[in-house]
Amino acid sequence: MNSPRPRTPIPVDRQTQEQIAGTAVLLLERFCRDQVRGQRVFEGKQFYTIVERGRDLNIEFRGDAHHLPETILTLRTQRDNGQTLYEIESWLTQADVQRFALIRQELKRDLKLQTAEIEY
Question: Phi and psi dihedrals of 110, rounded to 5?
Answer without folding.
Answer: -65, -45
